[in-house]
Amino acid sequence: MSIEDDIAFLERVPTLALIGREALRVIAISVEHFHLGSGDTLFREGEVADCAYVVRSGAFAVGREDPRLARRTGQAARVGPATLLGEMALLTETRRPATATAITAAEVLRVPRNVFLRTLESYPDAARRLTKELSAQISATLVELDRVRERLDAIDGGAPP
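User: That's the sequence. What structure does it adopt?
Assistant: Structure tokens below.
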């Protein structure tokens, strides 16, 4: 694959598309390509995360390993091409909240955190666009949490915890 092919592909990923073609060029130069076979584990729940992965081809099951948590969150999610896995690891030190296992033969692009952060430093407009979108997503999540809290309060008869 050429750098131009990688840039065009990364532009298909909604979060990455926000930062623009020139910033993606820097990232595309630094990505590593990995091939996995069906059943191979990309990462495990609890591991330190220093990068994100973009699914180029194939499919992954992403889910919790802890049976108690898996019961609460339901079945593993199935994701495919142009999915960004582990996006929080691009911005902060964190651990993997789930395990990603290849369902089929797959290819991923590894995006290191340090490259992503240096790119945002070099492209402040990209950083602003990304910050604006992430803020909107967080706000929407908070609204949803309030709705869930209201439903739970209604079930509990409105009693405070």
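DSSP finds six helices and ten strands in the chain.
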